[in-house]
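Write out this protein's structure.
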Amino acid sequence: MQPFFEQHPLRFECTGCGRCCVAGDDHFVFLSAAEAEAIRRHLQLSPRWFRRRYLARLEQGELVAASGPGGRCVFLDREEKCRIYPVRPLQCRSYPFWPEVVRSRTSWQREARRCEGINRGKTVATGRIRNLVNACMAAEAD
């Protein structure tokens, strides 16, 4: 059986609302070491200051972005815009095309209640969605 996103065209257009950048205490932005280094360089910070201010480790050792007040992404500026957009991590680049979101119509529509860009704009090519889903799955396996 084909995945939901291969059976039904999905439309998405980011509106820049920033809602996907605010989560609860049990949600994290996972980072690879390479992603963290790219962000550090983009922000032009010393490794020590960057680690102290922007990174955290979970109990299992995973590297994540530190949480800001109210679950805001620590990389959002005062206007709710991403300060690291050109070097944002895979988790951010691939949203909303995460495996758990595109697995069914129900999960896609549930996420649409949080994200006003879902079901808006042009249809996203199935190949692009497949590539993003596969990249997410590969990152989870690491």
